[in-house]
Amino acid sequence: MPHRLLPVLLALFIPSLAVAAPSGGEVDRSVAMFEGATGLIPWLVVLPILMPLIGAGLSLTVRSRSSVQHRIAFVALLFGAIAALALFLQVSANGPLTMVAGNWLPPFGIVMAVDPFGALLVLVTALVGLAGLAYARGDVDEAGTHFGFYTFYCLLIAGVTGAFSTGDIFNLYVWFEVFLVSSFGLIVLGGRRVQLDGAVKYGVLNLIATTIFLIAVGVLYGFTGTLNMADIHLVVAELDGAPIVTVGAMFVMAFAMKAAAIPLHFWLPASYHTPKVIVSALFAGLLTKVGIYSLMRVMIMLFADQGSMFIPIIGWLGVITAIFGAVGALAQVDLKRMAAFLVVSGVGVMLIGLGYGTEAGLTGAIVYAVHSILAMTAIFLVLGYAQRLSGVTHLTTGTNLYAVHGLAATLFLVFGFAAAGLPPFSGFWPKLMLVEAGYQTGDVFGIAGIVGIILSGLFTTIAIGRAWVLVYLRPPQEDGVPDPEPTLEPGASTRPFALALVALAALIVAMGLFPSTVIDAARSGAQGLLDPAAYLERVLKVE
Disulfide: which of 22, 150, 231, 242 matches 226 by Cβ 3.0-4.6 Å? Predict the structure, then answer.
């Protein structure tokens, strides 16, 4: 790679060498440059990122006008969601889609490359972003709007979408930084003491993870001479396993910390309950999935056989995380902290699927990732809605909310059962697929994975059932303790909250009843990770 890149760089930065190469011959820029016009279809790769970025910039220019900011953000994310749907349909029909930056062809320049795995997550991110924005209409006050909520919100959606769309591993790090910076802004918005405490814990651990990630990228570039993911796959296949041990361990540590896998999970339940509920919901639904996506992309596709040494470690880490995350949820009395531990448990389930290392296991993990994005976002939002209606935040206070606001109580049960993996909701199919994948392996880890999935589902069901009975069914106690006060302003509309929650419930039920579209896309994504021939052909024109 360096010998291919050096003449191009010399010709670019030293005009006198633009015609004559060091060897005396002419530099053939045609090997590095694309001279034709970019067609319309490749723009689908960048539009789901570009629209939120435009929304972030425009909303910043009208920061004193909250209603205008919301409209700008909604229009931007709506067009981004339409582009994401078109991208998903295009990739599903015709395979991976790419677009190069500055007309520099890969591996010389930066490439955006979306395969079925990435396209599926881009679409779900866009849908969740729209639902969250509807909820934010009633949750974010004038002060939050003035200090940049909608700008940070759009930037976070753009950063997560960019991470799912890039074909360059350094730019994966760049997109990590985009959504990390925007998440810092969101988590401190409001300035309460508990928020600042949570922000410190969130920020320090995530900065450590991104630093490890950046060091790993530097080491990887040092022995491959390339940052293009497709090119890395080809170069690593020709190396012995020695260099992979060091860099692979750093990638596993960085991404496991990002995904909040035990024992690197403690920052998540310590911080996710502190900001506004719309922020917690967005974090819970999206940010840990970027860590899971990155682990799959790097360990399965980039490192292929060379990365197989790490797969069992990741799998056993998943078993521990799935079980103890659900046990942690049982130990909580704060409802948001309970939900945060359910996020950790779900991370473990996805790691189990990755640990199987088979097409069936990866397919189940991808389907579970889609489900978890929807369900975890919804659980936090419905808890925020219940707090608005009744003021309750802990299991120790009954509200009998079911008798007064049956929609909030019913939706909490729907979202909780989905998280537990009960039919007919979205979590049932991926857990069934992962159990089947574990049975197919026929080894000790396969059985351990099945036990981990079943126990996590059982403990999650108990935690959700207990919360529903103690909070939503139990009447207020007559023990002299003041009842919690609703935080919803008198006469304020509940329509934004109900609209977002009903939309997410519809997606969760639809995925549970008609899972074939998501399963087929996930299977194509898993096949693309295990056999990236189509990806290589589209990115590098490798036959």
Answer: 231
| 363 and 497 belong to one structural domain | yes
Q: Are residues 447 and 336 in the same domain?
A: yes
Residues 130 and 19 in one domain: no
SS3 331: coil
Residues 18 and 160 in one domain: no
Number of domains in the chain: 2
- 3-class secondary-structure state, position 65: coil
Question: Which tokens go with 346?
Answer: 């779900």
Cis before residue 107, ω within 30 degrees of 0? yes
Instruction: Give the whole-angstrom CA distance, residue 322 versus residue 320.
Output: 6
* φ/ψ bin of 469: left (φ > 0), alpha (ψ from -120 to 50), beta (otherwise): alpha
Q: What DSSP line would sit under 481-519, residue for residue?
A: PPPPPP-SPTT---HHHHHHHHHHHHHHHHHHH--HHHH
According to DSSP, residue 82 is labeled H
Residue 36: predicted pLDDT? 60
Q: Whole-model pTM? A: 0.90
Query: What are the tens digits of pLDDT across the range 241-294?
Result: 667 888 989 999 999 999 989 888 888 888 888 888 899 999 999 999 999 999
- 233 shares a domain with 171: yes
d(CA 316, CA 314): 6
Q: Are 1 and 38 within one domain?
A: no
Residue of 395, 426, 404, 391 whose CA lies nearest to 514:
426
> What is the extent of the structural domain holding 238?
33-540
297-316, pLDDT tens digit by residue?
999 999 988 878 899 999 99
Q: Does residue 213 have a pLDDT over 80?
A: yes
Residues 186/156, Cβ–Cβ less than 8 Å = yes
Q: Assess contact for 48 and 39: CB atoms under 8 A.
A: no
- Which of 116-134 are b and which e, b meaning 16 or more Cβ less than 10 Å from the residue's Cβ? bbbbbbbbbbbbbbbbbbb
**361 and 281 together in one domain:** yes
Task: Compute the distance between CA of residue 441 and CA of residue 368 in angstroms, rounded to an integer.
Answer: 19
Digit-coded pLDDT (tens) for 312-321: 999 999 999 9
Backbone φ, ψ for residue 517 (5° rounding)? -60, -45
- At 486 the pLDDT is 59
Residues 6+ apart with CB under 8 A from 373: 121, 124, 125, 128, 285, 286, 289
d(CA 460, CA 338): 10
